């Protein structure tokens, strides 16, 4: 009887423990931000957040103000929506807000890559050496050759001048940028036809993975989808194997340097394969979608297209493709395109929506620009969503939803960098690449790739929408928070190569 009498008590303790783990008993402590746990234990607001992150955060901001904590799938996230208060989070002089550990868990889950100590510094060191200055110039030249190969074909001109071709604009941009980027970074064999076929197959599989990616990160896949993700991971590990690198020429110094560092650290070849998959994703997952938005905005705004083409003609001269030759552009021209720079910056403002995350190590006081202080609880995650709090702020960017190609130009044609909020000059007036320790190390390469592609398209091709009245499609709500947004539907367009002289 004594034994059976212990059972109810044991069950009660177990139930209380489970409820505590589910977050049911968490209460807001003095000085902590407003706490909104939702009505579902453990899940909290996860479903609404994953359905449409942008609309969810708009609602929570209206309800709670610029700082609030929400429960999402057993984890507590504190969102800070005041950009004037971002500085202390991004600089983190006390080292209480950690980005690296969170990133390591994510890349292990998504790419199968187990990070080693110092990987973050290695990637930034490699990017400084080879994705800036002379290293970037060399890679841009390789990228120009790869774009010529992908668009014009191995013979130099697979397109008939004057003949219109039709495609989906998103597919076209993503396909071309992915294949050219892959060949530029991971090298080619002596058989260009075979290289193009392999790049095309890789792109097809990449898009399958890309489609599943948001729900994969949130662990919302169905049983068959989990199997498909596992198959795709194995396929990329095999196709990007370091053993295949031995068969190729022209592997970028950027990739070679990092693989050499991994070998010196004793990283197994199989783990190097997974590293290659991670770097393929990091380098090619956003340039194509961003280029789609840039060309679509230009096609929907003729005055912007005219301004970019006028600038291109001034910088490049009368650039016409000669028979059986690749595109001829001086890479140095990319440094003299303020109008195109503004177009790209405006495109990134409208089209990129990353989430910046930091794990709180030890209870931490967050001081806001207003002087108010909040206590952040150890183990929680601090989150910034600049798209809503910065890019769409009408105080910083008047008419924030409108595309204004000259928004980032001063009247004298120089780059505009002075933006204000509440009368105060703001440092983080756009944040498409993240910021602080989590800033994208390949941002200079990505931007030059997109600029080069857009320059080629507006200079060497006639472009038009199949339906000029088609509206700019809304963003696929599943892509909020994952870097570059993607359209909820395709946009058909026509293009033709201008006749050679």
UniProtKB/TrEMBL annotation:
Mode of membrane association: Single-pass membrane protein
One Pfam family named in its UniProt record: p450
Database matches in InterPro entries: Cyt_P450, Cyt_P450_CYP7A1-type, Cyt_P450_E_grp-IV, Cyt_P450_sf, Cytochrome_CYP8B1
Cofactor: heme
Transmembrane segments: 6-25
Residues annotated as signal peptide: none
Keywords, in A-Z order: Endoplasmic reticulum, Heme, Iron, Lipid biosynthesis, Lipid metabolism, Membrane, Metal-binding, Transmembrane, Transmembrane helix
Record carries keyword Metal-binding: yes
Top-level taxon of the source organism: Eukaryota
Membership in a protein family: Belongs to the cytochrome P450 family.
Protein name: Cytochrome P450 family 8 subfamily B member 1
The organism's taxonomic lineage, starting at the top: Eukaryota, Metazoa, Chordata, Craniata, Vertebrata
């Amino acid at each position: 009887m004594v034994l059976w009498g212990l059972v109810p008590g044991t069950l009660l303790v177990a139930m209380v423990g489970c409820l505590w783990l589910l977050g049911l008993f968490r209460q807001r402590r003095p000085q902590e931000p407003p706490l909104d746990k939702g009505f579902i234990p453990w899940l909290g607001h996860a479903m609404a957040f994953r359905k449409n992150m942008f609309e969810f955060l708009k609602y929570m901001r209206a309800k709670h103000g610029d700082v609030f904590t929400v429960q999402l799938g057993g984890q507590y996230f504190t969102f800070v929506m005041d950009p004037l208060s971002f500085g202390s989070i991004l600089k983190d002089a006390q080292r209480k807000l950690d980005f690296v550990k969170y990133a390591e868990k994510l890349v292990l889950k998504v790419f199968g890559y187990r990070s080693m100590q110092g990987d973050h510094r290695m990637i930034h060191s490699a990017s400084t050496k080879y994705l800036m200055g002379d290293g970037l110039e060399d890679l841009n030249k390789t990228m120009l050759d790869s774009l010529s190969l992908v668009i014009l074909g191995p013979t130099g001109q697979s397109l008939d001048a004057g003949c219109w071709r039709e495609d989906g604009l998103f597919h076209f941009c993503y396909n071309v940028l992915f294949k050219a980027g892959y060949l530029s970074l991971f090298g080619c064999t002596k058989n260009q036809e075979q290289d193009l076929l392999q790049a095309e197959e890789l792109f097809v599989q990449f898009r399958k993975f890309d489609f599943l990616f948001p729900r994969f990160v949130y662990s919302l896949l169905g049983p068959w989808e989990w199997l498909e993700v596992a198959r795709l991971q194995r396929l990329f590990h095999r196709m990007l194997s370091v053993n295949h690198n031995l068969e190729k020429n022209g592997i970028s110094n950027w990739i070679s340097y990092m693989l050499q560092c991994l070998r010196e650290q004793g990283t197994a070849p199989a783990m190097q394969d997974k590293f290659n998959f991670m770097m393929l994703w990091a380098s090619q997952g956003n340039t194509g979608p961003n280029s789609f938005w840039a060309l679509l905005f230009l096609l929907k705004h003729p005055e912007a297209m005219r301004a970019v083409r006028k600038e291109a003609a001034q910088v490049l001269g009368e650039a016409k493709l000669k028979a059986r030759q690749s595109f001829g552009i001086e890479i140095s021209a990319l440094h003299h395109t303020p109008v195109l720079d503004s177009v790209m910056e405006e495109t990134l403002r409208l089209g990129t929506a990353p989430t910046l995350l930091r794990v709180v190590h030890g209870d931490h006081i967050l001081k806001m620009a207003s002087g108010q202080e909040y206590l952040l609880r150890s183990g929680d995650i601090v989150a910034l969503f600049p798209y809503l709090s910065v890019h769409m702020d009408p105080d910083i960017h008047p008419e924030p939803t409108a595309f204004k190609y000259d928004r980032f130009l001063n009247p004298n044609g120089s780059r505009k960098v002075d933006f204000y909020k509440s009368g105060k000059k703001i440092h983080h007036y756009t944040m498409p690449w993240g910021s602080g320790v989590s800033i994208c190390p390949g941002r200079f390469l990505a931007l030059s790739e997109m600029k080069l592609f857009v320059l080629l398209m507006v200079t060497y091709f006639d472009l038009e929408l199949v339906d000029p009245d088609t509206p700019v499609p809304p963003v696929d709500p599943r892509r909020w928070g994952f870097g570059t947004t993607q359209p909820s539907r395709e946009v058909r367009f026509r293009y033709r190569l201008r006749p050679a002289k």
